[in-house]
Design a protein that fits this description.
The structure is a homodimer of 200-residue chains. By secondary structure, chain A is α/β, with parallel strands linked by helices. Helix content of chain A is 22%, strand content 32%. The relative contact order of chain A is 0.25.
């Protein structure tokens, strides 16, 4: 079984994964468009990324290792289901209170789980086989961490101070939490990739 | 004239320089005591640091470049004036509303300025000559950044999530703010040193 990880979570220097009222994405995700190496995405709504060579190598490795995603319903709705397929080109498990009416059946693009974070991660692990499960979004990351399900935290730290917004582990009840590492540091352009292991 | 910098500001992965109600310092400053290389301090109240070789090299370089400090009255009081001399062994400019009664005169250890952040930094620059001025504390860093006085931000990023407390640039009115870099990355043990340049 692979790891459960946040993979490449873009975060501001002051700890926000989104600015106030879902703002700041232009500043946070600038590194996705500023480089020379093109990374195609599987989403019809998300144009190819253009990142630095160092970031590209890291993203390709991460995406290649990823067997399934877990996201929250909020992100699924906010992105309009990425137009039908997640950019990372894997089956996306959506944790929700209620299955969307326009998706009566699970398919290779989206699987809906209503039984909580443990059930969502377990379903994603079935789908991922030997590969990793990536959890996406601050609330999913927090729930996984609190449930003891998270193995690694991958952060793409960007040099911007947003001053407010949504935190990576917003509302974490079990703080303080220590991690081990960084077990890896990769310098991109306009971004620093850091990877930490969750102490068990 | 040297730079104005935050030098080596220890920050949690979620952006806090102190936990809730001045807690969390044991977790934040663990890297100061976990290593093999001893760094003596000039404060009678602060025992020598014991840091990794990589952190020691960085601290020695930073301290060697530092000609004067700017701190706020809060930190001065909280540390009881570091027992008489700041650990970094330089004159410390204290920005305050009112000079403390037990210090009627400035001396080589402490200089008091009541005229605001610009006056405090200008006084420190006089004292520092060709060397750098280090601003210490979240409020001082924020005031310097807002006044356009800050050249570099040095962060010692530690892998702990505190979940609340005092932010590096708490209450920044001018957010979002972009930095350039990191212009330097040094991997210590239990800490990652990052340095950013403030865009002018």
């Amino acid at each position: 079984m692979g790891k459960v990880t946040t993979s490449v979570t873009t975060m501001s220097l002051d700890g926000y994964i989104a600015g106030p009222e879902e703002s700041g994405f232009d500043l946070l995700f600038r590194w996705y468009g500023d480089g020379d190496v093109e990374i195609p995405t599987a989403s019809p709504d998300v144009p190819p990324f253009r990142v630095s060579a160092a970031s590209a190598e890291l993203i390709r490795r991460e995406w290649g290792n990823t067997g399934a995603l877990v996201v929250g319903r909020h992100l699924y709705d906010l992105t309009h289901a990425w137009g039908g397929r997640h950019p990372m080109d894997v089956t996306t498990v959506v944790l929700t209170h209620r299955r969307p009416e326009d998706r009566p059946e699970d398919d290779e693009n989206f699987v809906f789980v209503t039984g909580g974070i443990e059930a969502a991660v377990a379903r994603a692990q079935e789908l991922a086989g030997e590969k990793d499960v990536v959890v996406n979004g601050g609330q999913m990351a927090r729930q996984c961490l609190e449930a003891g399900l998270l193995d690694e935290v991958g952060i793409a730290l960007v040099p911007v101070v947003l001053g407010g917004g949504t935190r990576l582990f917003d509302g974490l009840g079990s703080a303080p939490v220590r991690f081990d590492g960084p077990v890896a540091v990769v310098e991109g352009e306009g971004v620093t990739h850091l990877r930490y292991r969750v102490g068990k």
